[in-house]
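hey so i finally got around to running the thing on that chain from the lab meeting. sorry it took forever, my laptop kept dying and i had to restart like 3 times. anyway pasting the input first so we r on the same page abt which one it is
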Amino acid sequence: MLEQFVAPFGRVITTPHVLTEVSNLLMKGHGLNSFAAGFKAHIMEAQEIYDQSDRIVEERCFPSFGLTDTAISKLGRKNFLVLTDDFRLYAMLLNRGVDAINFNHVRMNLS
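ok and heres what got predicted. didnt touch it at all, straight out
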């Protein structure tokens, strides 16, 4: 469902923080081996944008949202559409004027 939704956008932007969290979640679930090929393909196709952590932690939302979500927020302000299933992050992005889509809303509409 996610691949179907993002396909028309042409490219996916990510951060090293997001990729690390996905990798860690995969390790907790079925193990990375089960998903390694697909995850590798995603990494190879995505455009990775990096902001140094020492700059990210200076953002005002860092204490409440942590490194990954703050990096996403900072990236979103560079005119990228953000896709998330995290309602807190989604609401914060909208409040900051960042274009965002809550994937839970997409799931409900595609089901």
